[in-house]
């Protein structure tokens, strides 16, 4: 059934970890609130494509199967490409269901489409020599070092919040199912796609093949927004604004910055690698690829106000 697109802007929304949950049960509850904010935008005529993170989820899927395989000798390993696709599937299912239920409750005649996507990455990407993407659960330094000794995996401290396993996070080159996502959005569907940045794949003479890595969802969302020519890229996280001197006595919230200002702050080391830095870099990539566009970083709760220009940090060319 063709749906009527909204008369508002087209927006790619990248949902952060706080919009999801650390267990399927917890997430099923959290996404009801997430869906409310998304349907608020749809009700205001905004045409949305929703992507989401998967760091905790993909790590836990891969790790759980690895643990079972090591202990029962029967359970198969679940490599990162497959674990990434599984995370897109279940997170997308829960988000779509919550959005559909909220649309029905409000009598809005729209529907969702959950598209599991692949993202082409380059085998020459230097990210394969320097794992930076945190996945799985947080743990203490002692637990991380013991796990590293047991498994040979790499662990790093994550933005002052504890230690996590880290894997390669290559730059997204192309979203394989882009045309399907665009056609569904143009047909008026609320599309959930590119979750976890998409399943990373190499494009070879014989076709696509999965790669054991996790792409940054903000960077893939930026690629999607630029390729769409979306009016906005909206990155929703756990803070209302990006700060300089973050978590210091002289912390300063930023309401806006140009690409040049953002690059200056990056040079100053103002944004933590593995957390806020990739978000700001994603916004720069989007507005440089599509200078008419506007990028916004804010919290889920402030999304509507941010779209109205009342809060959040706006990044422009
Ligand atoms: N300069 C900064 N300004 C604001 N937040 C920052 C900054 N540096 C690090 N952060 C932290 O980065 C977090 C967002 O990164 P992360 O939690 O990895 O993203 P996600 O919401 O996609 O899961 C914020 O919640 C905040 O704790
Ligand atoms: N893939 C990805 O960027 O997930 P997180 O947002 O959870 O790090």
UniProtKB/TrEMBL annotation:
Keyword terms: ATP-binding, Kinase, Nucleotide-binding, Transferase
Molecular function per GO: ATP binding; carbamate kinase activity
GO cellular component: cytosol
InterPro entries referenced in this protein's UniProt entry, alphabetically: AceGlu_kinase-like_sf, Asp/Glu/Uridylate_kinase, Carb_kinase, Shikimate_kinase_CS
SUPFAM superfamilies: Carbamate kinase-like
Database matches in PROSITE patterns: SHIKIMATE_KINASE (PS01128)
Pfam family, one: AA_kinase
Origin: domain of life: Bacteria
GO BP, sorted A to Z: L-arginine deiminase pathway
Domain Aspartate/glutamate/uridylate kinase: 11-289
Catalytic activity of the protein: hydrogencarbonate + NH4(+) + ATP = carbamoyl phosphate + ADP + H2O + H(+)
Keyword Transferase (UniProt): yes
PANTHER family (UniProt xref): CARBAMATE KINASE, CARBAMATE KINASE-RELATED
NCBIfam families: arcC, PRK12352.1
Family that this chain belongs to: Belongs to the carbamate kinase family.
Protein's name according to its UniProt entry: Carbamate kinase
Annotated source species: Senegalimassilia faecalis
UniProt lineage: Bacteria, Bacillati, Actinomycetota, Coriobacteriia, Coriobacteriales
């Amino acid at each position: 059934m063709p749906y009527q697109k909204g008369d508002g802007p087209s927006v790619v929304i990248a949902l952060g970890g706080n919009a999801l949950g650390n267990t399927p049960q917890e997430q099923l509850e959290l996404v009801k609130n997430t869906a409310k904010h998304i349907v608020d935008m749809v009700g205001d005529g905004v045409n949305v494509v929703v992507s989401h993170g998967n760091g905790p989820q993909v790590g836990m899927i891969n790790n759980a199967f690895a643990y079972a395989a090591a202990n029962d000798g029967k359970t198969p390993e679940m490599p990162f490409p497959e674990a990434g696709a599984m995370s897109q599937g279940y997170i997308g299912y829960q988000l779509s269901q919550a959005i559909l239920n909220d649309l029905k409750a409000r009598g809005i005649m729209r529907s969702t489409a959950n598209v599991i996507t692949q993202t082409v990455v380059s085998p020459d990407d230097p990210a394969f020599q320097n794992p930076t993407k945190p996945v799985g659960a947080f743990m203490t330094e002692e637990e991380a070092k013991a796990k590293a000794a047991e498994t040979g995996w790499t662990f790093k401290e994550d933005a002052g919040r504890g230690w996590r396993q880290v894997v390669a996070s290559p730059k997204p080159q192309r979203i394989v199912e882009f045309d399907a996502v665009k056609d569904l959005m143009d047909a008026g569907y609320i599309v959930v796609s590119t979750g976890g940045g998409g399943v990373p794949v190499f494009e070879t003479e014989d076709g696509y093949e999965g790669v054991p890595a996790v792409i940054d969802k903000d960077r893939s969302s930026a690629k999607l927004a630029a390729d769409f020519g979306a009016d906005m890229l909206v990155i929703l996280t756990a803070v209302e604004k990006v700060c300089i001197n973050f978590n210091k006595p002289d912390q300063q919230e930023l309401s806006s910055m140009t690409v040049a200002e953002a690059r200056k702050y990056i040079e100053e080391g103002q944004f933590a690698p593995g957390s806020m830095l990739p978000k700001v870099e994603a916004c720069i990539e989007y507005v440089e690829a599509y200078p008419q566009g506007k990028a916004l970083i804010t919290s889920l709760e402030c999304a509507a106000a941010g779209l109205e220009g009342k809060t959040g940090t706006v990044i422009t060319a």
